[in-house]
Amino acid sequence: MKKCYLCKGDIEKELVMVEREWNGKKIIIEGVPAEVCKQCGEKYFDSETTLKLEKIKKASTYPQEQDISISVLVRRFDRLPKEQRVSG
Ligand SMILES: [Zn+2]
């Protein structure tokens, strides 16, 4: 059995979701075969999968593509909101 390069944990084959960015858009590719470390979660892709991921990412149109909008809250770590004081 293969071991993780980072932590020497056990690796198992899994289908994962991969996030990529292209032309300022976030692209999520589902069902990607990967070898995933059970210990630290590091994902390993073979060269064929890596090539295919690049192709999918760069494709301008894609069959069965779904455009899903997700709203994201961005919060700065170094700025805490002022504590609200209860008056009266
Ligand atoms: Zn690991």
Task: Provide structural commentary.
- The chain is flat.
- 14% of the residues lie in helices and 31% in strands.
- The protein has a three-stranded antiparallel sheet with strand order 1-2-3, with helices on one face.
- Strand 2 (25-37) and strand 3 (43-44) form a beta hairpin.
- It contains one helix and three strands.
- The protein starts with 10 loop residues before the first strand and ends in a 30-residue tail after the last helix.
- With 88 residues, it is an alpha+beta fold.
- It has one domain (1-82): Ubiquitin-like (UB roll) (Roll), CATH 3.10.20.
- Residues 4, 6-7, 9, 37, 39-40, 42 line the site of zinc ion.
Secondary-structure class: alpha+beta
Shape call: flat
* Unreliable sequence segments: none
The distinct bound ligands, ions and cofactors come out as: zinc ion
CATH architecture: Roll
Radius of gyration over all CA atoms, rounded = 20 Å
User: Strand sequence of the main sheet, in spatial order?
Assistant: 1-2-3
State the helical fraction: 10-25%
Count of beta strands: 3
Q: Can you give the mean pLDDT?
A: 87
Task: Look up the CATH topology.
Answer: Ubiquitin-like (UB roll)
Strand content: 25-35%
Secondary structure tally, helices: 1
Name of the CATH class: Alpha Beta
Termini separation comes to: 67 Å
- H/E topology pattern: EEEH
- Sheet with most strands: 3 strands, antiparallel
